[in-house]
């Protein structure tokens, strides 16, 4: 990436006309620089506010277009926009993207040497730099503040503004010191942005940053493209549940898997790798260079899974993350929303999947009670945990419950969560709940759920006999459920607040005040019925329909894959992640519309003037190659069509394998499918003598390959002289 200045004449070529009205200039920037035809949601109002010199507090979901809310004003207003960003990786990502669209942007952080820092400072003083990204710690240094006072600043953008809140797990004390911007740069507009903030946190941001008089913009928190699924961590191993989910929905997709502990992160990453997926670990205990490399791989590679603690993810702007999975309960609804929001930032279908169990409740309660926070802090954190547990245990629409927490009402069930797609059964669980609570009470409120369940189900062991609990009236009264079913009920009783784990983290269950009316029959208890053992949620058809894939017509799949391949090449040359070149949605639009001239590219979403100038010719050449080849307009998959396209250009199987990074057998398999579809002939693919072809054909007839389709017997009969791929192509011709 260029750190010392623009490396081409593209940068800042597209300055808006200075005499045009402000919002006309903003619209010009939006179209010419960023390649979008219109603002979304509250973007226009936010942009107008900041261009006009007023402050703004913006709450917008991940993937909602927060960056444009300050980037567009930065290109309209004179001077340099200072963007406060908490992470180096986020700075790199944002600057890479801006340089690609022709904007002179830079960052100041510890990765730069003295020469690079001086160069950036000179560009700032010269007024050529449009956006400068800094960490709050760097910004608050007196040297940095003095430098800024000597230049012209267009605006301050404070990204990830929830870091100001002492209630959040992303708390950064330096963020609170950013209030000094209000006094030292009184006439410079400030915009604070976050994707996660309840009413308490919003008010805290406003107070701590002196933004009480700022215009507030609260976009919908709804991410309709994300499907929410919360599974019970039952008898099936949680990792096995995870694998079934990934295999069914995301066999080749990029995703994030969150675990509570570093050990679990490393073990899960190794386990997924052993099962055949490329998975890497990320947690705070790894050396800095290892973490940096992991993050770089995740941004650059397609189909990579990162297994991580919550140390990973803030500021990650990878748009094609198709799933986020939690193997444990997050700390709060805010954390859950923020972490799941890293999926589907491109607006395409994505999944948020979580499995949690009783032990998660115990662990989270223990951490809260043992934390160093004040009693008020513990109380707030407990309330937030209770709300998250309620989301997990609800039988209603999860999206409605999630949005309600953020003060937003969804009129109808979403139709895109597990409870909507497969409504859970409920039943009157009052009697069962009374049995469970009575057993806790009669065993002295001194035991955890495992022991209590053993008493309920009448299990005979030395510990129960020693305690004399086999003589209790509750011993063995729970024959309506097995151990798994009772654990399911106990979790619901904890979630409903009728039982509470002890403060010491031992897992001992104790009755709460709300349990007594239930025991006395003064209240009732509606319980969720546990899913059948082994169930993973959803029918096969529904799982298939939930697969998160970019939608392109079958006949355009080959072109889409070819454009993806071109994007990888362009990204490799530019040393940026592929999505910085353009998003999958842009490629899908190109594959569908098939523009034939440079001026037609400007109608494609996400292609601004700089990208058209830089990549337009390559895009058009790829599209033209497909448009002129009718054999590529078929129902074969995109990856097969990509192989076919290279074959039609005269590449042999070995060259195609090398070009695409595939095994030779895979390439032969693709070509065999094309042969069977009648698009090409085996003779075009294989360099075989007529005698060899006759020998293979007669062998097929002799060992019954034509009837069975099995190549193994023929391969053995031919003494292995011909590759399986070659045999497959011959068989496809004869089929």
Q: What report would you give on this structure?
A:
The protein is an alpha/beta fold and 735 residues long. It has 4 domains: 22-218, Rossmann fold (3-Layer(aba) Sandwich); 226-356 and 394-421, P-loop containing nucleotide triphosphate hydrolases (Rossmann fold), CATH 3.40.50; 426-528, Arc Repressor Mutant, subunit A, CATH 1.10.10.10; 554-734, HRDC domain (DNA polymerase, domain 1, Orthogonal Bundle). Helix content is 48%, strand content 10%. It has 37 helices and 17 strands. The strands form 4 sheets. Strands 3-4-2-5-6-1-7 form a 7-stranded parallel beta sheet, with helices on both faces. A 6-stranded parallel beta sheet has the order 8-13-12-9-11-10, with helices on both faces. It has a two-stranded antiparallel sheet with strand order 14-17. Helix 19 (430-442) packs across helix 20 (449-456) and helix 25 crosses helix 30. It starts with 21 loop residues before the first helix and ends with a helix.
């Amino acid at each position: 990436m260029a750190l010392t200045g623009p490396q081409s004449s593209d940068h800042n070529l597209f300055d808006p006309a200075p005499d045009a009205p402000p919002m006309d200039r903003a619209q010009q920037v939006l179209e010419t620089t960023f390649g979008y035809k219109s603002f979304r949601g509250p973007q226009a109002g936010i942009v107008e506010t900041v261009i006009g010199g007023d402050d703004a507090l913006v709450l917008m979901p991940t993937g909602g277009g927060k960056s444009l809310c300050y980037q567009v004003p930065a290109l309209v207003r004179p001077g340099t926009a200072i963007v406060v960003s908490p992470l180096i990786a986020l700075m790199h990502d944002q600057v890479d993207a801006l340089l690609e669209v022709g904007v002179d942007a830079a960052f100041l952080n510890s990765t730069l040497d003295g020469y690079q820092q001086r160069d950036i400072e000179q560009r700032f003083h010269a007024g050529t730099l449009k956006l400068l990204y800094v960490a709050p710690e760097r910004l608050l240094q007196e040297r940095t503040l003095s430098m800024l006072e000597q230049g012209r600043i267009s605006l301050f953008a404070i990204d990830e503004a929830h870091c100001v809140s002492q209630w959040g797990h992303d708390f950064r004390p330096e963020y609170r010191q950013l209030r000094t911007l209000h006094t030292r740069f009184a006439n410079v507009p400030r915009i604070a942005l976050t994707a996660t903030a309840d009413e308490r946190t919003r008010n805290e941001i406003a107070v701590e940053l002196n933004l009480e008089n700022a215009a507030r913009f609260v976009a919908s928190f709804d991410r309709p493209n994300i499907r929410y699924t919360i599974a019970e961590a039952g008898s099936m191993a949680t990792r096995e549940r995870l694998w079934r989910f990934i295999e069914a929905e995301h066999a080749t997709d990029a995703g994030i898997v969150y675990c509570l502990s570093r050990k679990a992160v490393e073990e899960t990453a190794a386990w997924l790798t052993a099962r055949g997926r490329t998975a890497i670990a990320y947690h705070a205990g790894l050396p800095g260079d290892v973490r940096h490399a992991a993050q770089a791989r995740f941004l650059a590679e397609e189909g990579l899974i990162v297994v991580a603690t919550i140390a990973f993810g803030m500021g990650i702007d990878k748009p094609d993350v198709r799933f986020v999975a939690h193997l444990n309960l997050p700390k709060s609804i805010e954390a859950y929303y923020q972490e799941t929001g890293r999926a589907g930032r491109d607006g395409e279908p994505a999944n948020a999947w979580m499995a949690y169990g009783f032990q998660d409740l115990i662990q989270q309660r223990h951490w809260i009670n043992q934390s160093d926070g004040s009693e008020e802090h513990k109380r707030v954190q407990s309330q937030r945990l209770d709300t998250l547990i309620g989301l997990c245990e609800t039988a209603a629409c999860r999206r409605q419950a999630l949005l309600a927490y953020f003060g937003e009402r969804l009129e109808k069930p979403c139709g895109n969560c597990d409870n909507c797609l497969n409504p859970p059964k409920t039943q009157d669980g009052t009697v069962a709940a009374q049995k469970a609570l009575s057993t806790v009470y009669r065993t002295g409120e001194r035991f955890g759920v495992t022991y209590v369940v053993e008493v309920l189900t009448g299990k005979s062991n030395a510990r129960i006999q020693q305690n004399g609990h086999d003589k209790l009236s509750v011993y063995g009264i729970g024959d309506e459920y097995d151990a798994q079913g009772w654990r399911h009920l106990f979790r619901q009783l904890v979630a409903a607040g009728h039982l509470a784990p002890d403060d010491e983290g031992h897992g001992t269950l104790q009755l709460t005040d709300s349990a007594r009316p239930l025991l006395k029959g003064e209240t009732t208890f509606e319980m969720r019925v546990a899913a059948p053992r082994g169930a993973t949620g959803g029918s096969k058809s529904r799982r298939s329909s939930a697969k998160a894939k970019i939608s392109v017509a079958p006949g355009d799949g080959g072109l889409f894959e070819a454009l993806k391949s071109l994007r990888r090449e362009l990204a490799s040359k530019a040393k940026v992640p592929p999505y910085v070149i353009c998003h999958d949605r842009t490629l899908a639009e190109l594959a569908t519309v098939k523009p034939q001239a440079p001026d037609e590219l400007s109608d494609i979403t996400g292609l601004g003037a700089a990208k058209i100038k830089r990549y337009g010719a390559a895009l058009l050449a790829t599209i033209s190659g497909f448009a002129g080849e009718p054999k590529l307009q078929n129902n074969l998959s995109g990856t097969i069509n990509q192989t076919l396209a290279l074959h039609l250009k005269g590449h042999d199987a070995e060259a195609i394998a090398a070009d695409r990074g595939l095994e030779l057998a895979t390439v032969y398999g693709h070509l065999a499918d094309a042969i069977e579809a009648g698009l090409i002939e085996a003779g075009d693919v294989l360099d075989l003598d007529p005698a060899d072809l006759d020998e293979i054909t007669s062998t097929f007839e002799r060992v019954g390959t034509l009837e069975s389709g099995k190549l193994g017997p023929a391969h053995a009969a031919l003494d292995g002289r011909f590759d399986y791929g070659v045999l497959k192509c011959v068989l496809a011709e004869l089929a």
